[in-house]
């Protein structure tokens, strides 16, 4: 049989809880669901292989948002996240995370993941910025996925690798009914009926095009093509604040994070070409990214990661973590360029745009039980709307989702859906394989992402967005009528391209809806440059209604941790310019 | 259509493949054992620890890392003492992930092994198990000829947090090796006894700057750190700004008012990291005497310094307000 | 429109002498998040079939025999 040859086939399975996405939130959700009801069937579906999938494929060098007793309180954390998000936060979910995450750290520790401990065996929490103390390094972070996978195997979770979910099934009563997926190596269809479904499909990280031009050199794992965002949208779920893009600082041309959280505690910092600090914001936020962007554009750019003021021994310690854990090719990259932290600062840049609540706030709308607006459908991790989740948020909220979904499944029956939906979806999925001639997915993807860079990247300009929408409409037309996939692997890329184009449309629509500027660079609109609390102190929810993309406002839930008047504009106030 | 789910292989089927003549095939079978998630796989792996092929034994050491408990520990002991270093390294890494205190029984005898690497790795694994009966062998290991072994022994002792170990830990703060001294100083942090604090304080005069840095930092968390305030004030004049920075942090945390002038003198240092922490410390102390040092840096070129200086000024003002 | 093939130098290199894919090993192919590695019908060894690499390293790190090397894709170097 030729490589990745297309096989005609369709089968059906059913389970109590279906978890889609085996990266960070997904395995935890599956594990917690199974532990809650060991008799129930839990299926974990993954487009790649659970062993090494998702944002933390090769590991993570530390926790950025660990709320550890004695160092930070849930109140403090909730306050800080609220301020970092310009107030647009439903605090309940953030607070719940903050309360539970320490328990999850202890659990991960018991799985064999080593967090940095001092010589007394206590967690060595580091202070990175002015306000709170939330950073906990992970010296053997490269073993995170292995440790989690081990737990899944012990609990005998049903793991289905190399199946890409394409659409959710919903019942006539609006409840979730399951999902349809396709094997990425044979194109066979697998229908999974489920009482509850948890989406843990990661960021939309393949939205913008990296400046290197290499399509897979993205900040996020390039497998995170926004499939979860697209599926939630087509199932009628609401998506929150998609205009609050993800943009991250990184090493120029190399997609390794800029390590504020790794090198920061050792005294390294982001500097301009004068070797001086310029970032005033404390917490990772759009405001911080705006300061970064402004410096890049100014005469004081480019921006650098500065370590050359540190002692040789300190630099060696930093290198060990940076090069071995999160992005182990980093050392190789610097070697190739003959750059050495000891000799000179390292050039930095900003990443392409994407959706990711893990770093910003753009995600499928969920409440504090990880429930979406579709009954029985949950979301957790980078794709769910709890802001600034990071890895620990994915584990914690995945655990919340798993437990609640199992409780829901235990008290409900399978929703009835129209069998014709399956045939319809099968034809939609396989359409690119039925064509004799056409445009391959890589060209359609490249064009869509190039247009995202040209028209949708902040600063956002209305006229540019409108042009972008028109051009993306043309790409969509080509994608729907002319895209060709000659084998199962190309079909995988073709389906990912559809997610990417859906996400691009959502990014444009959501950005045009919010006629103000907010979240620093993430939603900087040049024709609406001011923050407008009177009209826009609210979430924006995007959803599909009667087949059309619509947006509406949703009030921010009353705060449970009050923010004082003097704290509200804390970040604005911090920008105390030197008068000299 | 094939079963869409990952299989949970029958261990007996895998076992057949363990007898394959080709070492590559045996390795593949061992990988499957590791992923089986079935604790019964440990017995099969245990038998493979004596495979003639070092690559196979290395795979066994890795696969054992997927399991916890006394049986896994006993099998790991066999590969930790393997003559091939690659096998021993893999075993050491797997061993460091063990969490079940019951594992200590199998590992303890290795603390007296002839090879320093084995002694080091077994102590490292024992650390996380936190079992009281590991204290004695760890105390003995403080006299080990190998510095890496002594560092791990300090870890075992420090994790147990038992006051009776303070004299021994104090003794190693004057070890010949700087790494050992660093570990010993920070392991003393937990102690409520005065000799511990005195020993950390003496380390502020260590010849190695990183030991002095750790000492300055540790005094900020030690129960008797207050008594070392004068020594910390002296450390604010250390030739390494890294040491001064930690001393300022600790004096700030302890709110030592008489340190204000000395911390203030750090605020004009060219290293922004030090200016930043000095400003924060003056804020924590909130003594009106800090004001004159803070005023010049309200306009510092570094935003973090400005921010901390501003915050510190607010602390001084609000404290004055609170005192009426 | 007719399709042409496109030349590209791939970042992942496999040492055939060390690779044990012909003994039934599929570790690198399994762990790749982008699913770009395959086992050759001709040689029985692993190789990079698609230049869609995130250079994330599990293929190299998890290879039991050290046969896999991940290089930085040329466009980024």
How are the SSEs ordered, and which strands pair?
The complex is a heterotrimer of chains A (580), B (324) and C (77).
Chain A: E1 10-20, H1 25-36, E2 42-46, E3 62-63, H2 74-84, H3 91-110, E4 136-137, H4 144-154, E5 158-161, E6 163-170, E7 176-183, E8 189-199, H5 227-234, E9 239-240, E10 249-251, E11 269-271, H6 286-297, E12 303-306, H7 312-326, H8 330-337, E13 346-350, E14 363-364, E15 377-379, H9 390-410, H10 420-434, H11 441-456, H12 462-482, H13 488-513, H14 533-536, E16 538-545, E17 548-555, H15 565-568, H16 570-574
Parallel strand pairs in A: 1-2, 1-8, 2-5, 8-15
Antiparallel strand pairs in A: 3-4, 6-7, 7-8, 9-14, 9-16, 10-13, 11-12, 12-13, 16-17
Chain B: H1 11-18, H2 23-35, H3 41-48, H4 54-64, H5 70-80, H6 85-95, H7 104-107, H8 116-129, H9 135-141, H10 147-160, H11 166-172, H12 178-187, H13 194-202, H14 209-219, H15 229-235, H16 241-253, H17 260-266, H18 272-285, H19 291-297, H20 303-323
Chain C: E1 12-14, H1 27-31, E2 37-39, E3 46-48, H2 58-62, E4 68-70
Antiparallel strand pairs in C: 1-4, 2-3
3D architecture notes:
The complex is a heterotrimer of chains A (580), B (324) and C (77). Chain A has 16 helices and 17 strands. Chain A has helices at residues 25-36, 74-84, 91-110, 144-154, 227-234, 286-297, 312-326, 330-337, 390-410, 420-434, 441-456, 462-482, 488-513, 533-536, 565-568, 570-574, and strands at 10-20, 42-46, 62-63, 136-137, 158-161, 163-170, 176-183, 189-199, 239-240, 249-251, 269-271, 303-306, 346-350, 363-364, 377-379, 538-545, 548-555. In chain A, strand 6 and strand 7 (176-183) form a beta hairpin. Chain A is globular and about 65 Å long. Chain B has 324 residues and is an all-alpha fold. Chain B has a domain at 1-98: Alpha Horseshoe (Leucine-rich Repeat Variant), CATH 1.25.10.10. Chain B is built from 20 helices and no strands. The longest helix of chain B has 21 residues, at 303-323. Chain B is elongated and about 80 Å long. Helices cover 13% and strands 16% of the residues of chain C. Chain C has helices at 27-31, 58-62; strands at residues 12-14, 37-39, 46-48, 68-70. In chain C, strand 2 (37-39) and strand 3 form a beta hairpin. The longest helix of chain C is centred in the middle third of the chain and has 5 residues, at 27-31. The radius of gyration of chain C is 13 Å and the shape is globular. The mean pLDDT of chain C is 94.
